[in-house]
Design goal:
Blueprint: H1 2-19, H2 26-33, H3 38-44, H4 47-72, H5 76-93, H6 95-108, H7 113-135, H8 146-166, H9 168-189, H10 193-205
Length: 210
């Protein structure tokens, strides 16, 4: 029984990545899984519940695969290097496309939204831990919002997937710009105490959250 559920979830992810959410019907997913269409409803009740379960299972597996790499990151530049690797591998495996299709499906299916939001939240939580650790000893500590930055990065990865599909060079330029910002942030880390205080004061006056 568990094997059939797993087959259906894996098939649902393949259909999302290869054919898009519009093609993710019970018949198509069951055919992809090599099982009877009725088993979709027996195990999951609805196609939406199947897609939700598949997204959760797939995301947790991918997050777990990078957890040790995230834990070993020691700088923003290293984090972006891991991000480039993650993006390339997830794109090659079709997983970023799957998440993009799930997001598109959630726009028209409110029942799918919690599962997709949870999938994104799992990536955000991992990134937030890394960013909070990296920023803890920075002049930006207490000013930069690690959770907000993590959410922006997660959203950017989805956008880069779409961008890369129509203009790969421009998407690569976007990554390069982020890398330059990471270098700038590391230069800020090397500022002396007087310059650090001046920077923090200037950021607060500019209305940065404290």
């Amino acid at each position: 029984m568990a094997d059939t559920r797993t087959k259906l979830m894996d098939a649902a992810l393949r259909v999302l990545g290869d054919r898009g959410v519009a093609a993710a019907s019970a018949r198509v997913i069951a055919t992809e899984a090599g099982v009877n269409q009725a088993l979709v409803f027996y195990h999951f009740g609805t196609v939406t519940e199947l897609l939700a379960a598949a997204c959760g299972r797939g995301t947790e597996a991918r997050v777990a695969a990078y957890r040790e790499r995230f834990a070993a990151v020691g700088s923003l530049s290293e984090l972006l290097a891991v991000g480039r690797e993650l993006h390339a591998q997830e794109r090659r495996l079709g997983n970023v496309a799957v998440l993009g299709q799930a997001l598109a499906g959630a726009q028209g299916d409110p029942a799918l939204r919690p599962a997709v939001a949870d999938a994104l939240a799992r990536w955000v939580a991992e990134l937030d831990q890394v960013l909070a650790r990296l920023l803890a000893d920075s002049p930006l500590a207490g000013i930069a919002d690690s959770t907000g930055i993590a959410r922006a990065v997660a959203a950017a990865f989805i956008g880069l997937e779409l961008y890369e599909g129509v203009d790969a060079a421009a998407a690569d330029d976007a990554f390069a710009a982020l890398e330059r910002l990471a270098v700038l942030a590391e230069v800020v880390d090397d500022l002396g105490p007087v310059a650090r205080r001046a920077l923090r004061s200037r950021l607060r006056r500019a209305g940065a959250p404290t």
